[in-house]
């Protein structure tokens, strides 16, 4: 089974972008750690990052038929602006978890609203890049209940 990891705008700059908010771990390091974590449970991870809303929507659409069993997404700023990404998730009916590195509720008021959270199976916010690992642990339990993870 395959898990799709989607990272939205500016997350390609992890490790260098506002390290006081987002930490020093790079996106490549996050992807490598999740790939190992999933492999230990017999799952594959497909990693995708884009700064383009349309590319993210296209990738979500593709998940409907490419064997993706679950999606973990950090939509970045699209969390607070993209009804189109919301509509894509409603259209494909692939379960997903929403991840945010920072605690969006401790930040600017415009970050307190997510167009995705009410559709998500779960939401991780404020755990740094560890939130990805916590989300993957949840996904492993959902997809491979006998796996250790």
Assess the beta-strand content as a share of residues. Answer: 15-25%
Globally, the shape reads globular
Number of helices: 5
Read across the widest sheet, the strand sequence of neighbours is: 2-1-3-4-5
Q: Structural class from helices and strands?
A: alpha/beta
C-alpha termini separation: 15 Å
Poorly predicted runs of 5 or more residues: none
The value of Rg in angstroms is 14 Å
The largest sheet is: 5 strands, parallel
Helix content: 25-40%
Order of helices and strands: EHHEHEHEEH
Oligomerization state: single chain
Please tell me about this protein's structure.
This protein is of the alpha/beta class. Helix content is 36%, strand content 19%. The chain contains five helices and five strands. Helix 2 (27-40) packs parallel to helix 5 (130-143) and helix 3 (53-63) packs parallel to helix 4. The longest helix has 14 residues, at 27-40. It is globular and about 40 Å long. 33% of the residues are buried.
Question: In summary, what is this structure?
Answer:
This protein is an alpha/beta fold. The protein has 5 helices and 5 strands.
Give the tags:
single chain; 149 residues; alpha/beta; five-stranded parallel sheet; 5 strands
